Amino acid sequence: MIMKCGVCESPSVSSLHFGGRTCKTLSMSVVRSKQMLNESARQRRRSSDRCSLVSDVQASSSDGSEYMPCQASTAEMRLAAERFQPLGGSSVDVLPHYVQLEVALSNRRKIMYTDVKMKDFYTDTCQVPYDASQLRQFDYRNSHGFVRHDFIMLYDFCNGIMDFDRLSRAEKNLFFRYACAVDCLITSAYYTYHLGRAQNRMVMFNAEYVPMDPMPIKGNEPGAEALFETKADHEKYKSLMPTKIRQWTNMCLPFCELHASFEEYALLKALTIWHLSECYTHTRGHNRPYTCC
């Protein structure tokens, strides 16, 4: 008697699969189904982790606490930094460390994005790397965001963060990604405060600016596609400008109201990167004692 598959009646049954007589084709289908279910479960867990991260960050900033370093006076911040004790037990002058780290990043950007002469590399403490005459208007058609030399500059910046060398390889990668995002936002807000607020310009990290008066369109308004030469131009504009407008409204304008000093800006930036990285690390089940500041 020929054994047949109990599902499709195929005569190719040679053994039992999953407690019943099934052909090898159905056996592999069950295996693939289980693999898909397992992958779906992993994706749900990752999504849950991301939601937890967002909740942690929102909860920590719901009372405006992310701006507290700028609301305190520079003298108070310096006193708090002097009292800082790292895990090793020796005192560390935290504030000057992060100020110099930010100065070094500003110097690199001045060299990269301006025509500064070599003899002027070390003339003063570079807090804002550009002046108004060196700014270029943002062109969405040629926008590429961070490019390789920007990553190199932030790579050096991250390596200078206290205790960065204690992180694992995966944690360093995550930290670097957050550093890129935070630098793009907070640096733009600080440059806007010094170079763009009076003219209603949002000044970005690479010496480009976006005019915000009148407020640019988002690109998704009815009939907006008629304003662009090609569909590709319209799609790229829509992918960039709504984010720029939110950055101006939700980041640059509130930051300008803080009137932050360079020291406050440098420390706030480092604290924000560490805070986001630590929140994510804790949601992943780690409990590493960071000592940024």
Structure write-up:
- The protein is mainly α and 293 residues long.
- It has a domain at 93-285: Orthogonal Bundle (Retinoid X Receptor), CATH 1.10.565.
- It has 8 helices and 5 strands; from the N terminus they run E-E-H-H-H-H-E-H-H-E-E-H-H.
- It has helices at 24-61, 68-71, 74-82, 94-113, 148-159, 169-196, 231-258, 262-283; strands at 16-17, 20-21, 136-137, 201-203, 208-211.
- The strands form 2 sheets. It has a 3-stranded mixed beta sheet.
- Strand 1 (16-17) and strand 2 form a beta hairpin.
- Helix 4 (94-113) runs antiparallel to helix 5.
- The longest helix is centred in the N-terminal third of the chain and has 38 residues, at 24-61.
- The N and C termini lie far apart (79 Å).
- The model is unreliable at 49-72, 79-91 and 289-293 (pLDDT under 50).
- This is NR LBD domain-containing protein.
- InterPro entries: NHR-like_dom_sf (IPR035500), Nucl_hrmn_rcpt_lig-bd (IPR000536).
